[in-house]
Amino acid sequence: MEAVEVLxxxxxxxxxxxxxxxxxxxxxxxxxxxxxxxxxxxLASDPLFEALGRLFPSLEIVRKMEDxxxxxxxxxxxxxxxxxxxxxxxxxxxxxxxxRMCGIATLTAEFxxxxxxxxxxxxxxxxxxxxxYDKYAVRVGGxxxxxxxxxxxGMIKDNHKRIAGSLRKAVLSFRENAPHTPLVVEVDxxxxxLSLEGLPIDWVLLDNMDPETLQRAIPTARRMGFKVEVSxxxxxxNLQAYASLRPDRISIGAITKAAKPVDLSLEVLDTLPLxxx
Length: 277
Known about the structure:
- Helix content is 41%, strand content 20%.
- It is an alpha/beta fold.
- It folds into two domains: 3-105 and 260-276, Aldehyde Oxidoreductase, domain 3, CATH 3.90.1170; 112-257, Aldolase class I (TIM Barrel, Alpha-Beta Barrel), CATH 3.20.20.
- The strands form three sheets. It has a six-stranded parallel sheet with strand order 6-11-10-9-8-7.
- Strand 8 (183-187), helix 8 and strand 9 form a beta-alpha-beta unit.
């Protein structure tokens, strides 16, 4: 879903019949406002600001820093100029999404920093309807995007193999019906990895294995001709132990699911005449 459509729906949720307080409590004037950081982080904003500009063409948005820049408490990350009622209408939705994006970018950057060059990937553990914004923020933080949706890449997981009858049956059925589609297969044990010998898959996802098991599993998977993804239970504290094993990538749901939003505020500075823009 396009960023502008997501923003439109979010604003509709917050003001289904308009902002009655802004409509009735303030005069019809223009204002100048700033978006100010109440704590430090990394800026991720472009799709949001672009969508905001498309929905409110009269709203002028001036970025004070670029995406990927670090900001500190008290820094102004952007300025807005436009009709007061429009600024008040978008205020909370803007801050909610922007704070979330900055939080994801900031946490992703910390994982990337500690991964010693092993690529950090996100997952589909994103907030409903906000996936485009979430995954953009991961890229700003130096991470990479896994599949965007169930329509992109095949990934056989526990429930697929249960329904199909076995992991092997699921793989063979997928390949019969989608011979050229990239396929990732999730395995939970070393023994299950061995059962993939000779199967036509691209990636093996070694899920929730401890570093000791991975020391055996990663070389075995590579010998079998598979690229190796590691996931499950990986935190900032234990990341180095997994990264030292040099898998081809590490996927971490927490960078989108558990990122703490950065605290931002919107502050109106001046009122301006309607002809002032």
